[in-house]
């Protein structure tokens, strides 16, 4: 009887000891390398994206977010955080001293000229300062003229034309287009064009997408003389670790496999041909070489003077045409 009581006491004490020690032992076990290996933290890269012109279809910011997720999967501990800004919010944040590590932008965000660091392995004249590259396009668009009524003869446009942007005016002037024209906002220009108010529309790849969404058959001729529809990326950090990761992400974004995915947003690649006859209009735009652009760092006042001269040139002023040609960067 006494032995039985002693045995029960011993068993109870053993159970209590096991109950007390088990969580500690288990915790130590699951936190060893055999159960759990924490990710090695390397760096978080902040990338701001700003749309300064109409793209193709979908969101360029969302495109970047998807590429960031892909990049992170094969680069453990390297995180790319995408923040979408408006032109105004980005300029305000930069003015207040906030600065990302990378920035995706087009013409109009001139503050980057004093903030960007060189991209020594890349070169695109529209992103150069004193022969050194500070901005490189990861996608771009083009201007074109559209007709719903038949073939397009640029030397003999019969009817009225609507132009949907300042850049379209430049492209028309440099293509020596002679036409009775009006200037309207992109969506209004498109709607009025398909409703028959105009015979021609000077637009962009975004209009190709609009026509495709309505299954409209259109004639198109690329205006390859000019485009400023480049979405650039610039490096804004000189931190040793972050700059290495940021440059690595830029290289990933510009890689052939990623550039081929630009078809999902109907944009084009500077370095690769990515369209086939399944999308004949985008293929036509892609195959039409763009001859000129303006610097992405061009100040607002200079750009406005450039566009004003373009209107005068389109109206037949040869001196204004010379002025805009002297301002162009030949690519």
Extract low-pLDDT stretches.
Answer: 10-39
Number of domains: 2
Count of helices? 11
Name the CATH architecture of the largest domain: 3-Layer(aba) Sandwich
Q: Give the SSE order as H and E letters.
A: HEHEHEEEEEEHEHEHEEHHHEHHE
Strand order of the largest sheet: 2-1-3-12-6
What is the CATH T-level topology of the largest domain? D-Maltodextrin-Binding Protein, domain 2
- Mean of pLDDT: 90
CATH class of the largest domain: Alpha Beta
Report what the structure shows.
Strands 2-1-3-12-6 form a 5-stranded mixed beta sheet. It has a 5-stranded mixed beta sheet with strand order 9-8-10-7-11, with helices on both faces. It is globular, with a radius of gyration of 29 Å. The protein has helices at 2-30, 60-74, 87-95, 166-174, 186-194, 205-213, 240-253, 256-259, 280-287, 300-314, 318-327, and strands at residues 43-50, 78-85, 102-105, 128-129, 132-133, 136-140, 143-147, 160-163, 180-183, 200-204, 219-223, 230-235, 292-293, 329-330. It contains 11 helices and 14 strands. Helix 2 (60-74) links the parallel strand 1 and strand 2. Helices cover 40% and strands 19% of the residues. It is an alpha/beta fold and 331 residues long. Residues 10-39 have low confidence and may be disordered. The relative contact order is 0.16. It has 2 domains: 43-140 and 228-275, Periplasmic binding protein-like II (D-Maltodextrin-Binding Protein, domain 2, 3-Layer(aba) Sandwich); 143-226 and 299-330, Periplasmic binding protein-like II (D-Maltodextrin-Binding Protein, domain 2), CATH 3.40.190.
